[in-house]
Amino acid sequence: MKAKKNLGQNFLIDQIIINKISENVNANESDLIIEIGPGLGALTKELKKKKANLICYEIDSDMKPYLNNLEDELTKIIYKDILTSNIKEDIKDISYNNLYVVGNLPYYITTPIVKFLINLDLNIKEMIFMVQDEVANRFTALPNNSDYGSITLYLNYYYNTVKLFKVSKKSFNPIPKVESAVIKFVKRNDKPKINKDLYFKLINDSFKMKRKTLKNNLKEYDYKKIEDVLKKYNLNDTIRAEELSENIFIDIYNSLYGDINE
Questions:
Q1: CA distances from 197 to 65, 81, 219, 260 (A)
Q2: What span, in angstroms and rounded, lies between the C-alpha atoms of 240 and 16?
Q3: Count of alpha carbons within 13 Å of 15, Cβ hemisphere only?
Q4: What is the torsion angle, in degrees rounded to the nearest 10, for the CA atoms of residue 93, residue 114, residue 175 and residue 68?
Q5: What's the alpha-carbon Rg for the chain, to the nearest Å?
Q6: d(CA 195, CA 257)
Q7: Spatial distance between the Cα atoms of 82 and 109, rounded to a whole number of angstroms
Q8: Which structural domains are found in the chain, ordered by start?
C-alpha cells in the first residue's frame, strides 16, 4: 500500500513499538477504545487482544481491504475524518466504564485533533498518541524550557502529560523526515476550579510575544495585582511567561478574577 502524502501517512511497521504502544493502553473488557488512523491495522490487531469495544476512524477508504476483515461484534471501522465525525452519536449505544483514545496522528493536524477531542467533553480517561517529537516536547515541557508555552498549559489544565518514548524514523514506511515520540495524556482529577475561558486568554496573552516580559505582554491587565503575585514568589518584572509554573498562573488568575469559576 503506497502512503499518501496529502494525508500525512507514514505506516508504523516496527512490531516492538506497536507492542509498546498497546501495552500502555490500560483498557480491559469493560472499556471502550477509539483508535484514530488505524491505517493498515498493525496497532488495531494488538488493541483487539484487549477484548474491549473498539471503534477505529480511518479517513482513507482505500484501507478497506486491510481493515474490513478486522471488524467483528466488538470492533467497528468508520471511514471518516475524525474531525468531522459525531463521536458522541457513534458511541451512544455502547456500554463501557472508561474511554481510551489511541492513534498515530497525522503530524500536520496533531494539535487540532487533540483540541477537538478535549472540546467534545467525552470524559476520556487516557489518550496515547504517536506525534512528532518536537510536538511531544512542547506538549510535555516544564517551565524554564524553550518548548514550554501556552499549548503546554492548555493541555495541563485537562491532563497530566508524559512523553513515554522516542520512535526512530526507521520504524515507519515510508521513512518520515522527522523523529517521532509516543505521548500519554492522563485525565486530571484535580483540574483547577476556574473559568477556563478567562484562564486560557490570560495564558495566550502571556505568551503572545514569547521573548517579551510578562509585564509587556499583559499591559491590558491590572498589573499591580500581577506584580503582587510575582513578589510572593520573589520574582521581578523581568520575568517571562515561560518561567512561570501552572500554580503561579493560577495565583495570577485568582488575583485578577477572584471567585469567577466555571
A1: 44, 27, 19, 11
A2: 41
A3: 1
A4: 10
A5: 20
A6: 9
A7: 11
A8: 5-187 (3.40.50.150), 196-257 (1.10.8.100)
All three cell numbers of 190, joined, read 484535580
With cell 505506516, the residue in question is 11
Question: What is the distance between the alpha carbons of residues 189 and 79, in angstroms, rounded to a whole number?
Answer: 33
| pLDDT digit string, tens, across residues 124-146 | 999 999 999 999 999 999 999 99
Residues with Cβ within 8 Å of residue 201, at least 6 apart in sequence:
none
pLDDT tens figures, 40-71: 899 999 999 999 999 999 998 888 988 999 99
Residue 64 grid coordinates: 478497506
Read off the pLDDT of residues 142-170 as tens digits, 9 standing for 90 and up.
999 999 999 999 999 999 999 999 999 89
Angle between helices 196-206 and 150-158 (to 10 degrees): 160
